[in-house]
Write a structure and sequence with these properties.
By secondary structure, this protein is an alpha+beta fold. The protein has one domain. The protein contains four helices and eight strands; from the N terminus they run βββββααβββαα. The chain has a five-stranded mixed sheet with strand order 4-5-8-7-6. Strands 1-2-3 form a three-stranded antiparallel sheet.
Length: 137
């Protein structure tokens, strides 16, 4: 099991198909795809571009939220609980209505350098976001 840490600050950066979240070292952690058509891809509905941006920003705030710093809300139209699905070379995180809120890749040099275990840990953290944003401050 990997003990690698992913130091803050985490940032959300725009890319052609949505947004990607990286840690302070530039390690790619998660991808949030947005499409204005609501295109169905691999069995889940894609977020709108605005939802993808808000979700990437929320994921980027995860280290602070885990330490009780700040507060956040889920993007409009996104609802918990979230579920993680192992898709062989990546993990899909979907909300209660089937919207894919994040993709976390491993073993793909173009998408980042995460190991399978690291990707699973990141996806599990993303899946707990509804708990972090809904807890009382």
């Amino acid at each position: 099991m990997s003990n690698r840490r992913f130091p803050p600050p985490w940032t959300a950066d725009q890319m052609a198909a949505g947004f990607r979240v990286a840690d302070a070292t530039g390690c790619m952690l998660a991808y949030c795809y947005g499409d204005s058509t609501g295109y169905r891809s691999t069995g889940s509905v894609m977020m709108s571009p605005d939802q993808a941006k808000a979700m990437a920003e929320l994921i980027a705030s995860l280290p602070d939220l885990m330490h009780g710093i700040g507060s956040a809300t889920l993007p409009p139209g996104v609802q918990g609980p979230f579920e993680v699905e192992d898709r062989r070379s990546w993990f899909s995180v979907t909300d209660a209505s089937g919207i894919r809120v994040a993709a976390v890749y491993f073993g793909d040099a173009e998408a980042g350098t995460l190991t399978r275990d690291e990707a699973r840990r990141i996806a599990a953290g993303v899946s707990r976001l509804p708990d972090w944003v809904e807890r009382p401050q």
